[in-house]
Amino acid sequence: MTSRFHAVQHVMLVITAVAAISFASCRKDAATPATSSTPKTETVTKAGGKSVVYVEVNSNSMLNAGKYTLTTGGQQLFDIAIIFAANINYNTTTSKAYLYNNPQVSNVLVNRATQIVPLQNKGMKVLLSILGNHQGAGFCNFTSRAKAHDFAQQLADTVSYYNLDGIDFDDEYADYGNNGLPQPNDSSFVFLLEELRTLMPSKIISFYYYGPAASRLSYGGKKAGDFVNYSWNAIYGTYSVPNVAGLTKANLGPAAVNIMSTSQSTCVNLANQTKNNGYGIYLWYNLTSTNKATLFSAVSNVLYGSAITYTP
C-alpha cells in the first residue's frame, strides 16, 4: 500500500502548471505579515491523546478541520491540522534547495486570516507539510550543515511570517539523484532538524515516518527524537510504531487511516490498539468536505468516550 497516492497529482500540478518561484517572491504576495498575538478562544485539550489530520489543499478547505467537536465536552476533534503540502524544490541556477508553495498552498497562507486563524482560534495547531517534488532535492542529501541551515531558515521564516505552529516533514517524491544531486547521506536530516529546532525553539516539528529519512535518524551522537515533537505511521490502514528514539509513547502515532478509504471497522480496531497500548497520536489523512461524523464518532467513542457533532 502506498502512503500517499494523491501526492503524485499534487506534485505534477506543481511541475506543469506553475513556474518555480522562490520563497522571497511568495512572501511578497502577503499584504501584511502575521503577528504572534492571535487570540485563542477555545481549546482542544482532552484526555485520550491527540488527533492529527492532513488536508489536501489542492482540492479541499482547511476549514473542514474545524467542523467536528466532541458531543460531550465540546472540544475540537482535531488537535493538529496539516496543510498538505509545500515542496522542497531545487534551483539549478543557484544550486540551492528552496521552499516552494504552489498556488493552492499560497492561497491558504496569504489568506491565513480566513483559512488558518479560525482553526487556531479553536485551539488547533496548524502545520505546513514539506514534500519532495521530483527535482532531486530532499531532506536527506544536504552535503553540509550550512546548506541544511539555509533551508531550515526558509522554513522558519515561513512559520514566523504566517504565524504557523510548525513544520511537518514528509520525505516522499524527492527522486534523489535528479539534477545531478547526491543520494541520501547519514548527516543531512539530523542537521536539518537540529538547525530548524534552533531557529524554532517553541514550535512543533513533526515527522511523517517514511522514506530515506526514516532510516537516517541519528548522527554524531544526536538523534531525530532530540528535535522533533511527534512522529506518526505513514501507511494507511495499518498499525506500526515509528522507530524514533527519544520520543515517548505520548508523542508517537502507530495508527494511520485514510478517511476516504479505510473501513470503519479498521479505524476502530486501530483506535483500540492505540488506546490499549498507551500511544498518544491518532493520524487521519485526506479530510474533505464530506460529513464523516459517523466514522469519526466510532473512533472518538474509543479514544475520548464521546461521539462527534458535525457543524457545517
Automatic annotation (TrEMBL):
Gene3D superfamilies: Glycosidases. It comes from the Bacteria. It holds the Pfam family Glyco_hydro_18. Residues 49-306 form the GH18 domain. Keywords: Glycosidase, Hydrolase, Signal. The keyword Glycoprotein does not apply. Residues 1-30 form the signal peptide. PROSITE patterns: GH18_1 (PS01095), GH18_2 (PS51910), PROKAR_LIPOPROTEIN (PS51257). GO terms for molecular function: hydrolase activity, hydrolyzing O-glycosyl compounds. GO terms for biological process: carbohydrate metabolic process. Belongs to the glycosyl hydrolase 18 family. This is Glycosyl hydrolases family 18.
